[in-house]
Amino acid sequence: MYLRFFTIFLLALTVPAVAHGEEKGVKLQAQLVWGTDQPKPAGKNLKDIGAPLSEKLRRVFKWKNYFEVSRQIIALPKQAGQRVKMSPKCELEFSQCGPDALEIKLFGEGKLVVKKRQPLVHGEPIVLAGDDKNDTAWFVVVQSIQE
Asked: Rg (Cα) of the chain, in Å, rounded?
């Protein structure tokens, strides 16, 4: 009888630790970015995205200026998806696929625009992009961040 009680007691101690480790997910930063050759428009609540990210985008895309429209921090639990609203017209849906990969679905005005699966490497952005009016573009930049 004592052996059974002791075994149940040990199981009760180990199950929460295992469950907690399995539940640990990833912390992400998502930025909605507007790319343009024009200077920042007066009266708009846009922020400069900073030199490191601007340089990475300039190596691939043609625009001179990149401005942050919005930013979200997402705590994505393992084995669960999450949908995040970036603007009235832009939403993202995240899910982990495997231990180090991420699937991102980008919705524009409620319609699926792009679905991307990519390894999640700390410090390396995942970029989803599309054209906008007046020879400009929008981007969603997703990066893992430290907790």
From this structure: 20
Q: Which two tokens stand for residue 1?
A: 């009888």
Q: What pLDDT was estimated at residue 25?
A: 77
Which residue type, as a one-letter code, is found at position 26? V
- How many other CB atoms sit within 10 Å of the CB of residue 125? 17
3-state secondary structure at position 51: helix
Report the Cα 6 to chain-centroid distance in Å: 45
Side by side, which strands form the sheet with 82-85? 82-85, 90-96, 101-108, 111-119
Q: Name the average pLDDT for the chain.
A: 82
Token digits of residue 12: 């009760």
User: DSSP letter at 41?
Assistant: P
- Domains of the chain, residue spans: 24-144
Retrieve residue 77's tokens: 């639990």
**Residue 102 amino acid letter:** L
Contact 114, 125 (CB under 8 A): no
